[in-house]
Amino acid sequence: MEFGAIIKHDQKKSPKTGAWRYMHPEVDKEKCIGCGTCVGFCPDAAITVSKEQGTMNNKNKKGTAEIDYEYCKGCGVCAEVCPVKAITMKKK
Fold first, then answer.
1. Which residue, among 5, 3, 68, has the nearest Cα to 39 in the 3D structure?
2. Which letter does DSSP use for residue 81 in this model?
3. Is residue 73 scored above 70 in pLDDT?
4. What digits encode the pLDDT tens for the residues 26-48?
5. SS3 string of 28-63?
6. How far is residue 41 from each of residues 36, 54, 59, 69, 75, measured CA to CA in Å?
7. Count of Cβ atoms closer than 10 Å to residue 92 Cβ
8. Where are the domains of the chain?
9. Residue by residue, what is the 3-state secondary structure of 20-35?
10. Architecture of domain 21-91
11. Which end of the chain is less enclosed by CB atoms within 10 A, N or C?
C-alpha cells in the first residue's frame, strides 16, 4: 500500500451482516453535529452523514449521521468516538 493512500470501501461488495447483531446504535438527531468522526472509525463503513443543514435549534449543524443497519454489526465504536455522545447503543 502506498503511504498516505486513502482506502475506499465498496459497499456493493460487502455482505449484509446486520441481521446477527445484538446491539444497535441510535443517533439522537438533535445532538448530532454532523462532524463525521463516527464515519472514519466505523469498521464496516455503515455510517454516512446526510447533507441536511442546520435546524432551528442548531444553526451550525453540518448534517446528521445515518446508519445502514444492513451492514452495521453493532460493535459500538461509533458511540465511543462521538464527541457529543449523540450515538447510544440499544438492545435489538
1. 68
2. H
3. yes
4. 999 999 999 999 999 998 889 99
5. CCCCCCCCCHHHHHCCCCCEEECCCCCCCCCCCCCC
6. 9, 24, 26, 16, 11
7. 11
8. 21-91
9. HCCEEEEECCCCCCCC
10. 2-Layer Sandwich (3.30)
11. N
Question: Cell numbers of 79, please?
Answer: 458511540
CB-CB contact of 46 with 68 (8 Å): yes
Cell numbers given for 85: 455522545
Cell numbers describing residue 88: 447510544
| Residue 34 in grid coordinates | 454532523
Single out the residue of 37, 30, 50, 44 nearest to residue 74, CA to CA.
44
Q: What pLDDT does residue 44 have?
A: 86
Three cell numbers written together for 16: 449484509
Which residues partner with 70 through β-bridges?
none
